[in-house]
Design goal:
Length: 366
């Protein structure tokens, strides 16, 4: 008897500055899915936002999936229960059907609740946090406010917009330090982040960050600091667990874990999994990661990043769709915990399907 395959659509690319990271993550997920268990459709989103059908016939050794720039386009059918219409030259060609969508999208228009809302309207199961958890975690200002209200430790910061600028001296006074990090509020992969130690550097850092977002964060630079990460996973039965911890040690030439250190410089950083920490201290961080996961309404998966200075631990940020490239920490930390990536993919897809069934049983009428 032939085994029924779960139909998985991998959604990748997108309009964010993390488009290329998404392509690399999607390729790694594609390679990790067991072809005997899953029937895979690749859906690429171009830089201008068009959904296109990508070629799934290539071998699995590719380092990054390609988003087609022309050809057929896709329209997700609202309330369609996992259906999309393939259109070419304005004429419908055929319908695609799938059981679950795996959105491998990082940053705005993918990790911020927008795509999640579209998938809710389409009545299709999907991997990852729902709209609230995605939006709250993506906006670093909103996330930090929620964490602060929950009395969880965060780095002192102020938020700024282009229409309400803050002078360097005022930021220093508010934060209590002269060395600052400036970053976009709604972006990841260290895009648009820079350090400022003077008024001139601060002005340049704000200009850079405002290229990527209308709201930016100005944070105190913690020193000395260790960058510790924890992967959190929610399984189909609702159990939430934390992985072994990982540590990122940026090369001295970069100063911090910049985009270049992550993706373009092979020697930009060293990754240590598990992190060398006292067991009791590591357990404290794992418990904090699970708390953060709950406070921000996360579901399915998240990578929680911390700054550690001596005995002090600060929540840095939360990624609800963390990278899955061949150097990404989320799958590496679960691998070190005893969960290889193919099994991790199985768990995430099982969670998506089980959650979708639970939501369908809810009553939305009086």
């Amino acid at each position: 008897m032939s085994q029924h395959k779960t139909r998985v659509a991998i959604l990748f690319g997108g309009r964010s500055a993390e488009h290329d990271v998404s392509r690399a993550s999607a390729a790694n997920i594609y390679r990790s899915l067991d072809p005997n268990r899953y029937e895979i459709t690749l859906i690429g989103i171009t830089g201008d936002g068009r959904w296109t059908l990508a070629d799934a016939s290539d071998d699995r050794n590719t380092s990054a999936l390609v988003v087609p720039s022309d050809g057929s386009q896709l329209a997700l059918l609202p309330g369609g229960g996992g259906r999309a219409l393939v259109v070419q030259d304005g004429a419908p060609l055929r319908e695609l059907a799938f059981d679950v969508i795996f959105p491998v999208l990082h940053g705005p228009n993918g990790e911020d609740g927008t795509v999640q809302g579209a998938l809710e309207l389409a009545d299709v199961a999907y991997v990852g946090a729902r709209v609230m958890g995605s939006a709250a975690s993506m906006d670093k200002d909103v996330a930090k406010r929620l964490l602060r209200d929950a009395r969880l430790p965060i780095v002192p910061y102020v938020a700024m917009t282009a229409s309400a600028p803050i002078a360097y001296e005022d930021a220093v006074r508010a934060i209590g330090a002269g060395e600052l990090f400036v970053k976009p509020a709604n972006l990841g992969s260290s895009v648009g982040i820079s350090k400022a130690r003077s008024a001139d550097e601060f002005e340049s850092a704000c200009r850079l960050a405002l290229r990527y977002d209308s709201k930016i964060l100005i944070e105190r630079a913690i020193a000395p600091v260790r960058e510790i990460e924890c992967a959190v996973l929610e399984t189909a039965d609702g159990k939430v667990s934390a992985s072994e911890l990982g540590e990122i040690v940026p090369a001295g030439s970069h100063g911090f874990y910049s985009y270049e250190a992550k993706y373009t410089d092979a020697n930009g950083a060293s990754l240590h999994v598990p992190a060398q920490l006292d067991p009791a201290f590591a357990e404290r961080i794992r418990k904090l990661a699970v708390q953060v996961f709950g406070v921000l309404c996360c579901e399915a998966l998240a990578r929680v990043d911390f700054f550690v200075s001596g005995e002090d631990v600060y929540v840095n940020e939360v990624n609800t769709l963390p990278g899955f490239t061949n150097i990404s920490m989320y799958p590496k930390m679960w691998e070190a915990t005893g969960l290889p990536q193919p099994a991790l993919m199985d768990a995430l897809i099982a969670h998506a399907l089980a959650r979708h069934q639970r939501i369908r049983k809810l009553s939305f009428q009086r």
